[in-house]
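Section 3.1 - Work completed
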Amino acid sequence: MRKSIAIIDDDLITCRLMEAIIKKSGLDVSVKSFNTPKEGINQLEKEEFDYLFLDQNFRDLSGAEVLKLLPESLKNHLKVVVMSSNLTTENKQLLDEYDFVVGLMNKPLTIQKLEHIIK
């Protein structure tokens, strides 16, 4: 069954690179990226995704704050991977706080990291 991935990252280049890596992986997945948490959450409410790759650092929000904004209805099926170029202890606490956070990932995304997450 085809999996779907949403990316929320305010760095357009990161989004495009991740999309290219995901498409190149050969995995049966579709991918869409969004450059603001608001845009991403709005689309997550309209369209069902299996995975969300969420940046930890936005200009005016943290990834943890974005997680709090996710509607309860999404938390039952969405698997979230928090991404950062510098993972911290705070990031690791997200795994304990939120059942739907299934992983933490150091940027950049690689095919090997993707395959490990999408089993």
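Second construct:
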Amino acid sequence: MSGPGAAQNGRAVQTRGIIRAAAAGGAAGLAAGVLVLGVGGRLAMSVVVLMARARPAWSLDGTFAVVAVGALLGAGAGLAYAALRRFLPGNSLARGLLFGVLLYGVLLLFPPASARTAMAGFVSLHLPILALFGLVVLAYGAALAAAFEALRRRWPPP
């Protein structure tokens, strides 16, 4: 088939593909954000407190806030991954790790206010903290890529 109907059908398929990729990116980012950025970030915070030889203090509100921020950041980053992944070289794991490096770079350039405030309390531990949270963000990138590919395989093509 050729002509205006074919072009319109092609655009519809392309639009459905973009929507499908965005949905997969948002869902994968949300899930990886909750598990890796949220729960993993909370565990990393506990490690920092132990490294500082400070007294750990956990609260349900604080844990919920960290997990919620991880979910929101994760969903947004998942949408960015869906848009950028085809430009990243390598297999799914390599793309995820590279995306994690890029995301960490952005977070280092534009750190959330809560991160700046928290770092101020641990001046002597800046490098270990940066390395620890860098690992969390790399793990997020890998988890995001794995979840994204799993969703793309399970969802029907456009």
